[in-house]
Amino acid sequence: MQDPFDQKKQAILDEISTNSSDNLDASPKGTIDEKCIPIINLINKDPNMVTTSSCSGRVSVFLEGKHQEGQNKIIAKGNEGRWLFVTHNPEDLPKWYDGVDFKYLCDQFPGGESRSILFKFEPLILHVKCRDLNQASKLYTVAMNCGFRESGIGSNYNVAIRISIKLDIPIGYGNDSEELVSFVSKEYLEYATKLSYERFTENFKKMNQLYDAIDKMMSSGDQQKVKDKETKEERRERKIREGLQRQQELKQKQQQQQQQEEEERTE
Amino acid sequence: MQDPFDQKKQAILDEISTNSSDNLDASPKGTIDEKCIPIINLINKDPNMVTTSSCSGRVSVFLEGKHQEGQNKIIAKGNEGRWLFVTHNPEDLPKWYDGVDFKYLCDQFPGGESRSILFKFEPLILHVKCRDLNQASKLYTVAMNCGFRESGIGSNYNVAIRISIKLDIPIGYGNDSEELVSFVSKEYLEYATKLSYERFTENFKKMNQLYDAIDKMMSSGDQQKVKDKETKEERRERKIREGLQRQQELKQKQQQQQQQEEEERTE
Predict the structure, then answer these.
(1) Predicted-complex ipTM score
(2) B254: domain range?
(3) In chain A, how many domains are there?
(4) Which of A62, B19, B121, B186 holds its CA 20 to 30 A away from the CA of B13?
């Protein structure tokens, strides 16, 4: 029988491979963010890890749902809450607000129970299920060292990789006549959008850094595995090969130095 | 020799007990947030846990430092970055902006390299070092179940307890003449302050919920320990005691019911 981790991993990979615009997953967008695919593929190459959810970073503008008695007052997603704008792609940012039917009523704030409109930048988040604590700890440490300081290991060796470059800005509200009121100016929205663009840039830089660090972690694991598996004879051969390589490198270096000295003399 | 965890815990407790306005810790404020003290004391009563850092939640207004070549562009804390306002206490919020020398230049946004001013609400965060993975997992699960969905276990069984009710709002910038410019109106600042007040309320509600859940986790641990330690004879005695208690409770209930029936008849 297959190991439970391998079984779970296979099921997740099957689901990922069939995910497309015709076969949506549970996320609001329904498909995997394109910008996450390289890092997802990298991680899933490791037999001890599998990605379970991801978001490459996004800008979203959300109209809260209607408040209900006794409900958490901060964010009510249910009850007709809806996205006015979402993108994972910085190229979609310019003038996004012209696509929303905002009524600009600067500095007219709602009283009492109204449905807030929040403008958000949310950075990369990755969830990775690991085979064991050793693997989870290794991944956690790599992520922390890359600046993903809000990372953590959850239950069942699930590692959440998080960073805290966010924006979370109240920009308006939905009024009783179902209008979308912006109590900040269009210029403010433009400025917040510019900041989000910068955060996207930083976010993708961090994602690349994470990619490289995970790649390095995986290949050093591979080298270790080669060493663990080799027989006595293989080890002898590797040592000879490595010794020859070192000799060759030394010889090359000496030749280069000689050449350099000669060049200096002729100058 | 003392166990390493116990040794570390004792050192932390010694530091906490001498922490005061005369003996500051490494946090910006220098002392433990008053509102954290009950939950810190509760956690530290458990021989398998010790709190290593905490913030009860705060509103802060921060002027970024000067940007340097090659530096992360998002938030530069160093280089003369400074807090214009910080509080852990909702009572300090009203009209905080009157204490800052803001120049209100609505909708005049800076071009190029300027030092941003950010208004932030940050919720409770608690770091708890646990003796082993079992204890860390128990605490992690309790925190997640209370809605602290960004919690995670770090290295050395350090649990970070985090929740994501935040605000992160660009409100202005420091100009070349060292003036503090607010590009949002005073009314906007007032509105953001009102939202922060609501978030504080929700934050403290969550903190109380977490207190109760940790308390329950600890006392169920204690009961288990009593059961683990008792001898056969003690177990027999406990069973008899519990049986007698149940009988007594049943008798009381019957009496109450009888009394109630009598009262109903006389009405």
Answers:
(1) 0.79
(2) 232-266
(3) 2
(4) B121
